[in-house]
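<instruction>
Derive structure tokens from the sequence
<data>
Labelled lines for chain and fold
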Amino acid sequence: MANRVERVFIGLGSNLGNGKEVLTAAWRAIGEVAEIVTVALSHPYVSSPVGMASANWFTNAVGELQTTLPPLQVLDKLLQIEAAFGRTRNERAEGYEDRTLDLDMLSYDDIMVDIPGLVLPHPRLQERLFVLRPLAEIAPELWSKAHGKTAREMEAELEAQMSRGSISLQEIARQNWD
């Protein structure tokens, strides 16, 4: 994979501080990594916490990158940026915690990876409207080999499950960066 330009999608999230400012600054920091080119960033979306109890709603977005770095090096760069923004990871915590910045690699080209610390595509991609809505905005036809569907199809399927009441409603609202 080295020297080949790969297409990578990442999720950006924050529920502490000014989410739009945090995500904008994080996107700039990602673009400053020499081997990474930022291609597209979705609108910001404000959403209710999923899979955790918190009074703090999230600001989320999805970005498209191009890179020659292999997946583990991309992950390392994202973790470094999270740490620079004050993100701490409590290995003893049960479940998710509030965070200043969360950067998740959603997919790396069309490869599938399952190693400690990295699973691609993201294992809960199809369960999270706060990821699927912005992903479908910037790459509706992005195909997930693991799920056998496009981003748009996964979004529609999740919305149908919420409409039927087979899973909990995930509240989300699109905003603008300004």
Observations:
- The longest helix spans residues 71-84.
